[in-house]
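INFO  loader      accepted 1 record
INFO  loader      residues=291
INFO  predictor   begin
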Amino acid sequence: MTASSLTERLEHGNLSDPFYIEYVSRTQPFTMEAHHFHSYFELYCLLSGTRDYFVRDSTYGVEAGDLVFIGPNVLHQTLLAGDPAHARIVVHIDDRYVRNVLGEHAELLLGPFVAAAPIVRLKGEQRLRLDALTDRILEELRMRPPGFELALRSAFAELLLLSARAVQAGHAPEASLSSPMHRKMSEIVRYLNASYGEPIKVGELAERFYISPYHMSRSFKAATGFTVIDYLNLTRVKEAQRLLRATRLPITEIAARTGFDNFSHFGKTFKKITRASARDYRKEHSAASPQ
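INFO  predictor   done
INFO  writer      dumping tokens
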């Protein structure tokens, strides 16, 4: 991202806070960081323009007014779709916010994050309410009057409730992009999600899905924003993180279970993606776990 690509950026808080909100307007092409999954909940609201958004195993066309709900540790990536100019609001909340603020209403309000499809597209009166809420958020971020922090949290809670009610009412989710190419790439992603613990080579993967390695590599990158190898490594490391947190398995066994046939390769890949060694990651998260 270059400074010249931004026309406006507003934020409250930082990524280590329980609640973080950011507004960005861009005029130039932008691609997210390649290694993109995280431990917090993310709400992405597109205010203008269009984007493609890869979430979990499918790519969705996102237009102004759409809400994208990303749960913890879900791989995702925004992609260019036509004109690069767009504006969006992103909100991050972590377990502390869920526990201390959402409290007894967490199950209802987090419903959109676990729905079958990650996209909510509101219509009619609900869309007008969404527009009023996002206008309020932008005004509070720009003007920062006394108590603006409370106003931002209040507007976010209303946005969650609006979306949760739409999902509970049986709001039909928007379908993912359904070209033959996107369907084929979704099949490949689902296979990788299920088989990451096995040895996987690009040539053999392409042969399994009756496609040339060159065409598969280009199409996979276009549909997901990831290379095949990057996606496979991210999926393996994400599972290794889970095993490091949840079990006392030896790190060598975790490396083998997650598909790494070389322990040195596991160590380098894990550190590149997480910026910590597997041993340090386990130590940090063991210390953070309640006794």
